[in-house]
Automatic annotation (TrEMBL):
The keyword Mitochondrion does not apply. It comes from Rhizopus azygosporus. Keywords: Cytoplasm, Elongation factor, Hypusine, Initiation factor, Protein biosynthesis, RNA-binding. One of its GO terms (molecular function) is RNA binding. This is Eukaryotic translation initiation factor 5A. It is found in: Cytoplasm. Translation factor that promotes translation elongation and termination, particularly upon ribosome stalling at specific amino acid sequence contexts. Binds between the exit (E) and peptidyl (P) site of the ribosome and promotes rescue of stalled ribosome: specifically required for efficient translation of polyproline-containing peptides as well as other motifs that stall the ribosome. Acts as ribosome quality control (RQC) cofactor by joining the RQC complex to facilitate peptidyl transfer during CAT tailing step. It comes from the Eukaryota. GO terms for cellular component: cytoplasm. Belongs to the eIF-5A family. The keyword Cytoplasm applies.
Length: 160
């Protein structure tokens, strides 16, 4: 996956933002984020081993993929850099559900139609609540070029 466009335009909020940034392993913290096996993960457990005969303490990381919930593990020398994903949360008003995709309204009134209806219980709840005519606010999390609707709540009355 190579980025073919190197023209420096910064219209959209994430055009100039890189998908990840480096952080020294020893600076990572539980409940923070890290990239393990190419996936953006939330750190749920980490431990540091004692320095061995040849020098480096190792950090054992356990992370849960923020999108799939799958568990990943990694071991890295504490002095090495690991990639930390940029994770952005945005809330949008749900306008419509069409053919498995959410139609969302952004803060500036534009529509966003490229977020998939979540599978399973969350997606079913969204469809049910939407059909009942509730005003719904969808939280969309973006990281490393992926976007997923991770939660939904009813908009407070009188907010629209």
């Amino acid at each position: 996956m190579s980025d073919k466009h190197d023209d420096h335009t910064f219209e959209s909020a994430d055009a100039g933002a890189s998908k990840t940034y480096p952080m020294q392993c020893s600076a990572l913290r539980k409940n923070g984020h890290v990239v393990i096996k190419g996936r953006p993960c939330k750190i749920v457990d980490m431990s540091t081993s004692k320095t061995g005969k040849h020098g480096h303490a190792k950090v054992h990381l356990v992370g849960i993929d923020i999108f799939t919930g799958k568990k990943y593990e990694d071991i890295s020398p504490s002095t090495h850099n690991m990639d930390v994903p940029n994770v952005v949360r945005n809330e949008y008003q749900l306008i419509n559900i069409d053919d498995g995709f959410l139609s969302l309204m952004t803060q500036d009134g534009a529509t966003k139609d490229d977020v998939k209806l979540p599978e399973g219980e969350l997606g079913e709840q969204m469809e049910r609540d939407f059909e009942e005519g509730k005003d719904l606010i969808v939280t969309v999390v973006s990281s490393m070029g992926e976007e997923h609707a991770l939660s939904v709540k009813e908009a407070p009355k009188g907010s629209s």
